[in-house]
Amino acid sequence: MKRHLEHTLSTPLTVELAQTQDLDELLVVARQAFTETYEPIGVKPAGIVRRYVEETFTREWLLPQLGDYFVAKVGGKIVGFAGLDARTEVPVSVADSNAIYFSGLYLLQGFQGLGLGRKFFEARSRHALARGFTSAWLSVWRLNAGAVEFHRRMGFEVVGEQEWRYEADGETWICEDWVMRIRLDASSQGSAFV
Ligand SMILES: CC(C)(COP(=O)(O)OP(=O)(O)OC[C@H]1O[C@@H](n2cnc3c(N)ncnc32)[C@H](O)[C@@H]1OP(=O)(O)O)[C@@H](O)C(=O)NCCC(=O)NCCS
């Protein structure tokens, strides 16, 4: 099915490190993918998702960490992104101080279920191993069942929980998250084209 679609598109689905020229397009995709993921499920208070994406996904935010982002491209256009972040404090539940945070992984709706999530996983694992990390961890909203299942399929296990919150104009968006961890080894790297 995935091969068939790739063949139909007549264009490879690639995952590669972001370049400076990707900056503005990546921001547009980040805003759209994040909004598509959370707005339809009725996050309260209304309007806070858009507020969050406008405030967060800015050039000032992305530029210093662009080298830690991978982008998925289809026919040269960015359709998703995923990051690594060695600066975020490792939660105690991860039980490995040499762990790296796998930050947001988002694909535009029309490009989910094509194997790009796995390609991102393999690319990030390879990158993290090359930098000497022994584990990766992430935080995922418990009610995002599809994402939780995707990460389980990649080999992550739930090791703890934490609260994510965003406050704006006296209103608060709260997510109860699972903390998930994977020990990295050669088998995490996969063989996908990156
Ligand atoms: C979650 C997400 C990144 C997965 O990427 P994807 O490209 O759709 O996933 P893939 O096609 O690479 O699938 C890889 C495996 O995960 C499984 N999987 C993917 N999404 C799944 C879902 N929603 N439910 C159950 N399994 C899922 C696939 O069946 C596949 O399993 P297999 O290899 O055993 O056949 C993508 O769907 C997405 O961007 N979702 C919206 C944003 C989001 O929720 N991001 C996560 C925030 S933490």
Gist?
The protein has helices at 2-9, 23-38, 48-56, 59-62, 116-130, 145-154; strands spanning 13-17, 69-74, 77-85, 99-107, 135-141, 157-168, 171-183.
Write the SSE topology:
Blueprint: H1 2-9, E1 13-17, H2 23-38, H3 48-56, H4 59-62, E2 69-74, E3 77-85, E4 99-107, H5 116-130, E5 135-141, H6 145-154, E6 157-168, E7 171-183
Parallel strand pairs: 4-5
Antiparallel strand pairs: 1-2, 2-3, 3-4, 5-7, 6-7
Helix pairs in contact: 2-3
Bound molecules: coenzyme A.
Ligand roster: coenzyme A
Instruction: Using the CA coordinates, give the radius of gyration.
Output: 16 Å
Specify the structural class. alpha+beta
Helix content: 25-40%
CATH homologous group name: Gcn5-related N-acetyltransferase (GNAT)
Mean pLDDT: 91
Q: How many DSSP helices?
A: 6
The CATH architecture classification is 3-Layer(aba) Sandwich
Shape field: globular
What's the CATH class, please?
A: Alpha Beta
- What is the makeup of the main sheet? 7 strands, mixed
Q: Low-confidence stretches at least 5 residues in length (pLDDT < 50)?
A: none
Proportion of strand residues: 25-35%
CATH topology: Aminopeptidase
First-last Cα distance: 20 Å
Q: Write down the domain tally.
A: 1
How do the strands line up in the largest sheet?
1-2-3-4-5-7-6
Number of strands: 7
